[in-house]
């Protein structure tokens, strides 16, 4: 009798420990991706600048569009999946050089799915240092939660238990969202500074569970170095992001050939090392692929991250055959 009872207690303890481990693991994933990175991250961050900096709109004088899909931490259940559509164009509003942009983004993480839509406007002014864009974004951010979301653990499932913190069932709330940014670009360099979720909108669900959109501050810079052979260029760039609680920094070096082919390396501090490949067609179509190798504590649980983009550039001006200036290559 004692032996049976003892074995039963052992099994119960193992089951409890297994559940605790699952919830702790989910907690770590959510905190790493959602708290430290409430805004999604991209390895091709030069291609996605419009999504975080409205001052970037219209900086190259043509229409630029990009569709980017990111699968982060492949192999980990509930890991982030992000789809971004972003398009910007140069225009004249009120007789002044300007830029406009549109961003639509879907971002999934475990029991959370966010959809954001924003419209950008930038006033562009030529300065002694280059073309300066001063921009603002206005949009909406929809946060949806599935309180019944479950994670697999071997032969059985662990389900989030009911409490007063996590809403049960499917719930969602819509919030008004604002952003601001500056972007300075010359022939050989660019510098950007921006803030997203400027108004720090609160999101309150029916059962009083609540959160808010934390301000994220961005700094970016890049430079174009022409090699001895003018067909080759090296383009180092950096992106720094913080919500004033944690930070993230990306450093990228691209080798560009004939302004059409690129290969690069990215290092994201304490997170991943990425390999980037890009190709640009003569008609303005661009494709790119990046693979991140995890070097963080999660490296033993997944198989890295994949990122794929498709971009297109064209001129809406009077001279339709005018050579465009790519956002990928300075």
What does this structure look like?
- There is one protein chain.
- With 330 residues, the protein is mainly beta.
- The chain has one domain: Porin (Beta Barrel).
- The chain is 10% helix and 53% strand.
- The chain contains one helix and 19 strands.
- The protein has one helix spanning 2-35, and strands at residues 63-71, 81-93, 96-109, 112-127, 130-146, 150-153, 156-159, 170-185, 189-196, 202-204, 210-212, 216-223, 225-226, 232-242, 247-257, 261-268, 272-280, 285-294, 305-314.
- Strands 1-2-3-4-5-8-9-12-14-15-16-17-18-19 form a 14-stranded antiparallel β-barrel. A two-stranded antiparallel sheet has the order 6-7. Strands 10-11 form a two-stranded antiparallel ribbon.
- A hairpin with a 2-residue loop joins strand 4 and strand 5.
- The protein is globular and about 60 Å long.
- Residues 1-36, 153-162 and 318-330 have low confidence and may be disordered.
């Amino acid at each position: 009798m004692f032996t049976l009872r003892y074995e039963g207690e052992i099994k119960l303890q193992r089951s409890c420990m297994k559940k605790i481990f699952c919830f702790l693991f989910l907690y770590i994933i959510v905190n790493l991706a959602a708290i430290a990175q409430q805004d999604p991250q991209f390895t091709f961050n030069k291609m996605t600048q419009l999504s975080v900096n409205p001052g970037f709109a219209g900086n190259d004088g043509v229409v630029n569009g990009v569709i980017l899909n990111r699968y982060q931490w492949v192999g980990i259940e509930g890991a982030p999946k992000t789809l971004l559509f972003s398009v910007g164009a140069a225009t004249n509003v009120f007789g002044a050089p300007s830029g406009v942009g549109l961003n639509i983004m879907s971002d999934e993480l475990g029991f959370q799915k966010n959809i954001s839509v924003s419209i950008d406007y930038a006033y562009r002014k030529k300065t002694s240092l280059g073309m300066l864009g001063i921009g603002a974004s206005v949009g909406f951010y929809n946060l949806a939660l599935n309180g019944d979301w479950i994670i697999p653990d071997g032969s059985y499932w662990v389900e989030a238990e009911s409490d007063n913190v996590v809403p049960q069932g499917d719930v969602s709330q819509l919030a008004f969202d604002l952003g601001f940014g500056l972007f300075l670009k010359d022939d050989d360099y660019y510098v950007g500074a921006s803030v997203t979720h400027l108004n720090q909108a609160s999101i309150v669900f029916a059962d009083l569970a609540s959160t808010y959109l934390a301000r994220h501050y961005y700094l970016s810079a890049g430079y174009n170095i022409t090699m001895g052979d003018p067909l080759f260029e090296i383009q180092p760039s950096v992106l720094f992001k913080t919500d004033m609680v944690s930070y993230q920094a990306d450093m990228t070096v691209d080798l560009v050939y004939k302004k059409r082919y690129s290969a690069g390396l990215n290092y994201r501090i304490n997170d991943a090392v990425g390999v980037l490949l890009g190709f640009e067609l003569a008609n303005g179509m661009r494709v790119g692929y990046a693979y991140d190798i995890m070097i963080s504590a999660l490296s033993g649980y997944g198989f890295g991250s994949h990122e794929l983009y498709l971009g297109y550039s064209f001129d809406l001006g009077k001279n339709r055959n005018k050579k465009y200036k790519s956002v990928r290559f300075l």
